[in-house]
Amino acid sequence: MNYSVSEENYIKSIYHLQQQTDTVTTNSLANELRTKPASVTDMLKKLQTKKLIEYEKYRGFKLNANGNKIALGIIRRHRLWEFFLVNKLGFEWDKVHVIAEELEHVSSADLIERLDSFLKFPQTDPHGDPIPDTNGKMAFIKQLNLAEIIVKKNIVVSSVGSQSPEMLEMLKHYHISIGTSLKVIKHFAFDGSIEIKVLQYTPCIISEQVAKNIFVHHD
Amino acid sequence: MNYSVSEENYIKSIYHLQQQTDTVTTNSLANELRTKPASVTDMLKKLQTKKLIEYEKYRGFKLNANGNKIALGIIRRHRLWEFFLVNKLGFEWDKVHVIAEELEHVSSADLIERLDSFLKFPQTDPHGDPIPDTNGKMAFIKQLNLAEIIVKKNIVVSSVGSQSPEMLEMLKHYHISIGTSLKVIKHFAFDGSIEIKVLQYTPCIISEQVAKNIFVHHD
DNA sequence: ATTAAAATTTAGACAAATCTAAAAATATTA
DNA sequence: TAATATTTTTAGATTTGTCTAAATTTTAAT
Known about the structure:
The first copy, chain A, has helices spanning 5-18, 26-33, 37-49, 65-87, 96-103, 109-118, 165-173, 208-211, and strands at residues 53-56, 60-63, 144-145, 155-160, 181-187, 194-198, 204-206, 214-218. With 219 residues, chain A is of the alpha+beta class. In chain A, a hairpin with a 3-residue loop joins strand 1 (53-56) and strand 2. The longest helix of chain A has 23 residues, at 65-87. The model of chain A has no long low-confidence stretch (mean pLDDT 92). Chain A binds a DNA duplex (30 and 30 nucleotides) through residues 4, 6, 25-27, 35-43, 46, 57-59.
């Protein structure tokens, strides 16, 4: 089966929303895709007849096993292209998302397998997110949220929750990227902000909102 | 200005047809795009209002300066991706056209300039066709048709006229690809076929139709 | 348990790109 | 040049994906 760009975008967005809540609502998907709830309802009917989702009128919906596999295929393509853009073409990691959203819809399976091989089978994309394999298997990486870290030991940034250029630009300012080693020094109860120290830089304070978008693992 | 995939395909096809005849006809374009003449007429109106073609009802049409520039941009993207697919991903040169037709519509200018740089600014694609530069300038390569070569000196294959898998598969069988050195040994007046010798292979005979699709330059 | 609010779906319209069938213009040929 | 054939355009329909506005269903609040 082959899916249109629009269908693929819906599938991908449903997948992402499902990471937070098992069943997805019409409004949240409309919001995610910057479209209108009525358009979402229209597409849901189509995805249902194509047997990609379980859908009960007014009750929400979720990808079925088939839909999940399709979603992981799209995510695989997206993340491989992001890796390519950063590691081969030298893009900054906050500039690749939009381009990868176009490239991900190029559908040749042969292309993607060769790209994967050319890139030496990377495990994560430039934002630290794992790349699904050909069969849709994706490594689980246990994510600790920086806002909840208490210990003052070294931790390593493994991924970021938001890929908006604004967010990533700020991270760059703080000298934070995937793989960066840092320590949490102090929590401020007043606004939830935390003081951190990135190796060889002076300590700095980041807001709770930023901290919640930074995921880490222990060294 | 940004153009739809469909608009870009029309522009590209008009450009290609103009290489043979200065003004293009509705039927020939419909045939090239495997669509119906009525659809072509519809799109012509659109391209005219977008100031990409000169078009007089019933009289044919051609790209204007602006349309030409757009076409060369699309061709640049197509050929750079073909080069990438063959030289980086290891595709056979007869398998890349279809994939490049999808990739060429990814519109980021930054992407293409970085790709060009990554590929070390190639001058021709895997079929020997020149790659336009950022400004739409394309090197002119004087093409001699193999069917018309008389001298028995060494000549080098510089490009092929057809990129159909069938054609390219056959060329592979004859051990001919871009850069191949060969000699014309004999012409057969009966059917226009010619005997050639590719270095280190025994001489073989190719039909006039094949010969007409092989372009060469002197050593 | 009603009522008010919010979420979702339906109905009907629209734009892009395509098609078929018919009409109009151009080209061919006898 | 008149008749015929070919090419091109127009008119009207279709599909995909979207929208607004209205109707329906669910949820929340009194």
